[in-house]
Amino acid sequence: MTIRVLIVDDQVMVREGFSVLLGAMPDIEVVGEAVNGREAVHQVAALRPDVVLMDIRMPELNGIEATREIVAADGTAKVLVLTTFDLDEYVYEALRAGASGFLLKDASARQLADGVRVVAAGEALLAPTVTRRLITEFSKISDSPRPPTMARLGDLTERETEVLVLIAQGLSNGEIAEHLIVAESTIKTHVSRILVKLGLRDRTQAAVFAYEARLVTPG
After folding, report:
1. Helix crossing, 158-168 with 203-212: angle to 10°?
2. 15 belongs to a structural domain
3. Domain that holds residue 190
4. Residue partners of 143: CB distance under 8 A and separation at least 6
5. Chain center to CA of 194
6. What is the pLDDT along the chain (219 residues), one digit of tens a residue?
7. Which of 125, 159, 191 is a domain's end point?
8. Tell me, what DSSP letter sits at residue 126?
9. Which helix (H) or strand (E) holds 173?
10. How far apart are CA 53 and CA 116, in angstroms?
11. Contact at 8 Å (CB) between 194 and 207?
């Protein structure tokens, strides 16, 4: 099945470059481009892409607000944030807004295509070392912290809490299963229940939640 992609960036060269790279992939189709967040919101509604490659710093409507609107309006489109720096303070807020992960703009063609495929498949694109550093650093200086309540954490079983911590540490389902010595299908069930109980969209938001809840500390 072809993955439909919308590219959002205010720089023409970036849009054209990504469009050429992704267009060369047999399983990916670039269905449109947008020059700012406001246009991105309209294009998502019109084109119904599977994945949105979203720049953060743009005129009219930035990538964070655009991500928030897209996620709220369309439950199927996945947002993959593009950033120039791996410690961009805005990336953390984009993850909180509902982005499924982030990718550096200097990523190779293979990394870009693989990132699109991962997000399209419903997984979170979490680079463990960079994501953990980013989340822990910028959760400290968030302008509007929203720490999760103990009541929400109390809904999780002891095993689910353990799985949540491992998600935040960047482990895949297979790695968690190996660590806990259980079947991978069991971990998938735990992850699904965690997302439902905490009212979260995906593994990325689960990782953010774990850091905000102080279940995981900088290491």
Report:
1. 100
2. yes
3. 150-212
4. none
5. 17
6. 899 999 999 999 889 999 999 989 999 999 999 999 999 999 999 999 999 999 988 888 888 899 999 988 867 889 998 877 655 567 677 777 888 888 877 778 888 898 899 888 877 666 555 555 655 555 554 444 455 555 577 789 999 999 999 988 778 788 899 999 999 999 999 999 998 898 887 787 788 788 777 787 655
7. 125
8. -
9. helix 173-180
10. 8
11. no
Both tokens assigned to 180: 């806990």
Q: Which two tokens stand for residue 171?
A: 């482990």
Q: Are residues 35 and 70 in the same domain?
A: yes
Give the full edge-to-edge strand order of the sheet including 28-34. 28-34, 3-8, 51-55, 78-83, 101-104
Is residue 44 within 8 Å of residue 70, measured between CB atoms? yes
Instruction: Name the nearest CA neighbour of 80 among 42, 45, 115.
Output: 115
Q: Which tokens belong to 27?
A: 């399983």
| Single-letter code of the amino acid located at 174 | G
202 near 124, Cβ under 8 Å? yes
**Domain shared by 11 and 82, yes or no:** yes
Long-range contacts of 184-192 (CB under 8 A, 24+ apart): 187/163, 190/159, 190/160, 190/163, 191/163, 191/167
Q: Which two tokens stand for residue 162?
A: 């353990």
Please give the model's pTM, rounded to 2 decimal places. Answer: 0.70
Do residues 158 and 83 both lie within one domain?
no
User: Pairing between strand 78-83 and 51-55?
Assistant: parallel
